[in-house]
User: Which sequence fits this backbone?
């Protein structure tokens, strides 16, 4: 099964954030599924991707997880309005991505 997993604040164990989504994706892969993680750039997270953003996103494979990271920097220190705008952009970009996936 192909799983398209959305988690705005995804991180690998190298980040300073929760890794529930990382662990769930790894378990799904272990059971034979293909997982694509769609996320934003969270100040406390580490997606494992190091390439430059091109057209507002970058992608790659980390520990068997295909990752698509949007260039939407987010921090808990941001004000409510800025966080709301970033979330709305993440939602809209994610919806557009769904229709572009095979």
Assistant:
């Amino acid at each position: 099964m192909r799983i398209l997993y959305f988690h705005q604040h995804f991180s690998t164990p190298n980040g300073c954030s929760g890794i529930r989504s990382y662990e769930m994706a790894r378990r799904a892969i272990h059971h034979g599924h293909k997982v694509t993680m769609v996320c934003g750039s969270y100040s406390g997270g580490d997606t494992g991707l190091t390439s430059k953003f091109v057209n507002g996103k970058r992608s790659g494979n980390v520990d068997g997880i295909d990752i698509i990271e949007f260039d939407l920097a987010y921090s808990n220190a941001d004000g409510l309005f800025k966080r709301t705008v970033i979330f709305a952009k993440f939602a809209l970009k994610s919806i557009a991505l769904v229709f572009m996936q095979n």
In short: The chain has one domain: 2-100. DSSP finds two helices and four strands in the chain. The chain has a mean pLDDT of 93. The helical segments are 20-30, 80-100.
